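Quick one, tokens below. Sequence please?
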């Protein structure tokens, strides 16, 4: 094992030991109280380096113990512990025939704790009365006050360290709160995105089913009528029903596959887009409604979200014509301008689509609004017109429509 590995293992051991100790504050505080007690007893009660052993009253050791033992509970009761320790240190300093204690260790720890964990009024009170207690407990009041500068500065330093620890802990807690808040916002945004996706899937399923059922209904009604007199038309009607059913099955399988696919491994079929509008028009034309399709302007590339929305808008508008209009002819026009894509679906029927309940025009308006476009729909002469303008790309880079 080389020196680098030994150093790494030692560092890991120290970090592990530190985590364990920090997880048990009572153990740390008990050890700290024991160290303070032994320091006070040895440096004041025994003074082995002096060669003489002062005759310290036995009850002085009890007072000295009260400057250390309460430190075990310093985190839970910072001000109460500081008050007891300060009073005990003052009482121990006033006992006659006891050597001077130049460094009040218990008061030092108590000052740090109050600055770190005490309330604001407690910290202010310690700032006002603490120096007096330190000067008095550091030795005989007969000595000059200047001889207490060092212990006084040390206790003030401990107080400042405690204040720094409190500020740092508050900063860390604010960062943790912000991290938790960001995590909650992320989870909420994930939930909202899932809700938007479910809403999109519900709209797509409605459009698919409504369109396919409308086509199949029209063909099913026309098929029996033409079965005896025009077998060719009857076969065409049944073929249109089968095509509509297969198309609906494929699209529903794709949508339900999205719901079932939790690991992202299932390949998805491509979404319909603008290139499928002409095929859609031909399918509706096979249902008995004469539909013409034309484009104007120079075609341009659009984002997938806009392409899906355009397809669904045309699909829903033609479905409304089949279901609610008494129409013989409809026209779908796709117009390209410099920055907009315009879809116009007009028919010569007499049905009042605007008053029909359900998701028809409402769904179209929602799709157009989600794309940042505009829509006009209403009667125009003999017939009904839906005109939607869409941008070439979704705002913000979104692709869920």
């Amino acid at each position: 094992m080389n020196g680098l590995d030994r150093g790494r293992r030692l560092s890991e051991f120290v970090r592990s030991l530190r985590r364990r100790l920090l997880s048990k504050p009572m153990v740390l505080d008990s050890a700290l109280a024991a160290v303070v007690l032994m320091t006070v007893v040895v440096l004041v009660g025994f003074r082995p380096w002096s060669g003489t052993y002062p005759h310290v009253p036995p009850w002085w050791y009890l007072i000295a113990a009260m400057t250390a033992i309460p430190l075990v509970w310093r985190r839970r009761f910072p001000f109460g512990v500081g008050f007891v320790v300060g009073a005990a240190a003052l009482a121990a300093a006033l006992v006659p025939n006891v050597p001077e204690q130049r460094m009040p260790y218990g008061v030092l720890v108590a000052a740090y704790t109050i600055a770190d964990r005490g309330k604001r009024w407690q910290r202010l009170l310690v700032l006002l009365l603490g120096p007096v207690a330190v000067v008095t407990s550091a030795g005989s009041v007969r000595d000059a006050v200047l001889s207490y500068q060092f212990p006084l500065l040390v206790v003030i330093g401990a107080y400042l360290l405690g204040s720094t620890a409190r500020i740092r802990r508050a900063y860390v807690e604010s960062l943790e709160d912000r991290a938790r808040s960001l995590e909650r916002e992320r989870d909420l945004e994930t939930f909202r995105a899932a809700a938007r996706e479910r809403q999109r899937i519900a709209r797509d399923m409605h459009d698919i089913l409504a369109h396919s059922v409308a086509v199949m209904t029209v063909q099913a009604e026309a098929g029996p009528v033409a079965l005896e007199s025009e077998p060719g038309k009857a076969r065409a009607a049944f073929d249109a029903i089968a095509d509509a059913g297969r198309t609906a099955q494929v699209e529903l399988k794709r949508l339900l596959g999205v719901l079932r696919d939790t690991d992202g491994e299932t390949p998805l079929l491509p979404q319909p887009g603008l290139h499928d509008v002409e095929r859609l028009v031909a399918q509706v034309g096979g249902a008995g409604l004469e539909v013409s399709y034309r484009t104007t302007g120079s075609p341009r590339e659009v984002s997938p979200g806009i392409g899906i929305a355009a397809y669904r808008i045309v699909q829903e508008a033609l479905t409304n014509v089949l279901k609610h209009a008494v129409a013989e002819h409809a026209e779908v026009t796709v117009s390209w301008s410099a920055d907009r894509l315009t879809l116009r679906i007009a028919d010569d029927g007499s049905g009042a689509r605007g008053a029909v309940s359900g998701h028809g025009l409402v769904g179209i308006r929602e799709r157009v609004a989600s794309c940042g476009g505009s829509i006009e729909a209403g009667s125009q002469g003999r017939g009904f017109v839906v005109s939607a303008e869409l941008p070439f790309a979704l705002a913000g880079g979104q692709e869920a429509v």
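Confidence is low (pLDDT under 50) at residues 140-146, 264-268, 354-358. The chain is about 60% helix and 10% strand.
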